[in-house]
Amino acid sequence: MLLKIYPENPNPKEIRFVVDELKKGAVIIYPTDTIYGIGCDINNSKAVERVARIKNINLKKDHLSFICHDLSHISDYTKTLDNNTFKVMKRNLPGPFTFILNANTNVPKLFKNNKKTVGIRVPDNSIIREIIKELGNPILSTSVIDEDDIIEYTTDPELIYEKYGKHVDLVIDGGYGDNTPSTIVNCTNGDFEIIRQGKGELEF
């Protein structure tokens, strides 16, 4: 299903529909402030496994990211942040960043692995943040990647639907996406190491 949601004022009815689907175990494709993402409710293990199969991800080895509504969710999944890290995150979020943080014991329980880190995103996109706010917990996040060597990321939601529509339950059309991924910042050592420079320029 392809569902059009307008980012300016997302329709609460449509948001609730998506949340109901996520609670039933749906895998969705959704807009962010960078490229479109594939995700599901992180608490639904079957849906998480489906995302892993679609993207050929090894849940035990690959780095996983969550999308949160705001910083209030973060302490549920990460070890206590020092003041400096929290301030930098607060200054830059919502925005096009993935912050790699030290995971607490909740993350391995969710994914049956022994990962010590987790990526956290709070994108500047009202559609996905309203969905997460209504859902009440983060969603798993991984990028929609195009196999085309020249076009790494597909930006047109209708083309994304053509390609992935059979594999996912719902594609949200929130307008054209970006083709530059988020900037990945490693904060696990109390410092800020840019692992991948993407759309975001980190402000200190």
UniProtKB/TrEMBL annotation:
Keywords: Nucleotidyltransferase, Transferase. It is an enzyme of class 2 (transferase). It comes from Plebeiibacterium sediminum. InterPro entries: DHBP_synth_RibB-like_a/b_dom (IPR017945), Sua5-like_dom (IPR006070), SUA5_domain (IPR052532). Residues 12-200 form the YrdC-like domain. It comes from the Bacteria. This is L-threonylcarbamoyladenylate synthase. The keyword ATP-binding does not apply. One of its GO terms (molecular function) is double-stranded RNA binding. The keyword Repeat does not apply. Its EC number is 2.7.7.87.
